[in-house]
Structure formats: C-alpha cells, structure tokens
Design brief:
Structural class: alpha/beta
Oligomer: single chain
Bound molecules: adenosine monophosphate
Strand content: 15-25%
Low-confidence stretches: none
Strand order of the largest sheet: 1-4-3-2-5-6
Length: 286
C-alpha cells in the first residue's frame, strides 16, 4: 500500500514508466471511514488492478466554516482500516491519497468551477447553495489527476451520484461511475461519518429518517398517491426536516401518472448533524 500526501508524489506514481495496471478504480471520500466507505473500496479492489482511495475534506463543498472545521478527521484510524481490508487482496495495488492541505488539490491560482445547474438546485441544493458545485469541481479534479477507469460512489448520496454521472456524460469523461447500495446499522440508520456526532438521544431521533422513508415506500407500493402527499405534509410539520420529498427519479420533478421510478429523499437536522437518506421505489405499469 502506498500513501501520498502531496499531489506531485501521487502524479509521479500514477505516471510511472512501469505502470502496467490495466485498470484503476477511484474511491473518493472525506475520511472518518466506516463500513459504507469500505464496501466501495472492496468493490474497487475486486474490479480493478489498482485502487486509489482519496481522503480529502474538500472546503469548497461546505457552506459553513464551522461544519468544515468540525468535520471528523481520523487519518491514522482510516489508514489502519484500509490496511486490514487490503490484506485480503495480495495481488492488487492500493494507493491512499490524503492531500495535506487544500492547496494540494486547488493551487492558489485555481479558478474553474464545474456547475450543472438544474439538478443541483433541488433537495440538498436548496439549503446548501454551491455545495454540488464544490463536489463536481473536486471530483473532476481528482479524475484528471488520478485517471481512473471506474469511480465508486454510495447511493446514500443519490443526488450526488446522479450529478456526477451527468457531469461524466456531458463532459465525455472516460470513467464508469458505479453506484453501490447504502450500508446501514442494525436499526436501519444509514452509516455516516456524521453519526459519530449524535448523542444517544439523537441516535433514536435519527431513526425518524429511515422510518419516514419506509412509510412513504408503502404508500407508493400500494398506489395510494393522495394519502402519500398527506403523509408527507403531515411529516414535515416537524421543523427538523430540511426536506422530505418524493420525486420522479428520471427528471427530479414531482411524480406524474407516468412515473415508474420514485425517489424518496429526506434530510433531517439534529443539533449536531444533518442526516440524509433516500430510497428508490420502482413500480410496474402496464
Ligand atoms: P463521504 O466521505 O461522506 O464523502 O462519502 C464518500 C463516499 O462514501 C460517497 O460516495 C458516499 O456516498 C459513500 N457512502 C457514505 N456513506 C455510505 C453508506 N452508508 N453506504 C454506502 N456508501 C456510503
């Protein structure tokens, strides 16, 4: 396993002369790794000769400097977790790239922002203006530096996954974007680095998020659309919700009679963390 903290060292490795790797996978993360991240790394190790895991808390995607400053940074523990996982893949190569500061990724004279409009202004984009521009900009830059043929993302951040797929499509980037299922704890709460900030009481309140999604799912499956909307309106009386939406997955608009694939997505605010979760529900139409 190689670990680089400087972009120049990473580039020397990636562009080395004896680089015979046929395939390279990239798993971009902000660290404080849990089983959700590890499921992505595992998949990349299985599908590629070489895997790069990036660990970078990207300032551009944070709206509040407090949130950026308090984001958990646990590099040594993360390296240990990756090392243990990697023991099962003796024939593969693994590189961890954890830039030591923001300038390693965005040098002082860096100017370009990648912005997709439309999709970025819904759901998480409403209360976090500029967030997805920060995400697409850093992911584009990581793609350019690392040149992966596959990149792995969690479907927990479904809007992010769709936005990155769209960027790759629009800009003709030679990367396959792979989305993997959400890993949950035994109660159904989606694993997240932000869960560590929750008190015992908040961990119980946080379960309202997966439960609300399950509730909406059962209305969709039994085709009770009017009841679904009353359920949603009732739910969002609770001011902790940033949003709780049911959208047509294909266009991120309100569902119509034609909708076959529904995205149920919610963001729930607790004192110490804002949690997001979602589920796709497909229904058969004749
Ligand atoms: P983050 O470190 O939060 O930026 O997440 C890095 C990647 O891990 C993103 O593609 C996330 O969607 C993914 N991820 C985060 N939590 C989970 C989870 N519980 N299950 C699967 N993937 C996840």
């Amino acid at each position: 396993m190689n670990h680089f903290q400087k972009t120049q060292d990473l580039l020397s490795y990636i562009d080395r002369k004896d680089n015979s790797s046929e395939s390279r996978g990239l798993v971009p993360t902000m660290g404080n790794l849990h089983q959700g991240h590890l499921s992505l790394i595992k998949k990349s190790l299985e599908e590629n000769q070489e895997t790069v895991v990036s660990i970078f808390v990207n300032k551009k995607q944070f709206n509040e400097s407090n949130d950026f400053d308090s984001y958990p940074r646990t590099l040594q523990k993360d390296l240990e977790l990756i090392k243990v996982l990697f023991e099962d893949y003796p024939d593969k190569k693994l590189i961890v790239f954890s830039p030591e500061n923001q300038e390693e990724v965005f040098p002082k004279n860096y100017k370009t922002t990648i912005s997709l409009g439309e999709f970025t202004q819904k759901l998480c984009g409403i209360d976090r203006p500029g967030h997805f521009d920060g995400v697409t900009t850093v992911i584009y830059r990581l793609f350019a530096l690392i040149k992966p043929c596959r990149a792995y993302f969690g479907l927990k951040d479904y809007q992010q996954f769709i936005i990155i797929k769209k960027m790759v499509n629009d800009l003709l980037l030679p990367v396959k974007v792979v989305g993997l299922p959400t890993v949950r704890d035994h109660n159904g709460l989606a694993l997240s680095s932000r869960n560590n900030r929750l008190s015992e009481r908040e961990k119980i309140d946080a379960l309202k998020l997966p439960k609300a999604i399950e509730g909406a799912k059962s209305f969709i499956q039994s085709n009770k659309m009017e009841e679904l909307e009353s359920y949603r309106l009732d739910l969002i009386q609770d001011k902790h919700w940033d949003y709780f939406e049911i959208l047509d997955e294909e266009n991120f608009q309100k569902p119509s009679n034609e909708t076959k694939s529904f995205l149920i997505a919610g963001a729930y605010n607790l004192k110490n963390a804002r949690l997001i979760d979602n589920q796709l529900v497909q229904i058969k139409k004749c």
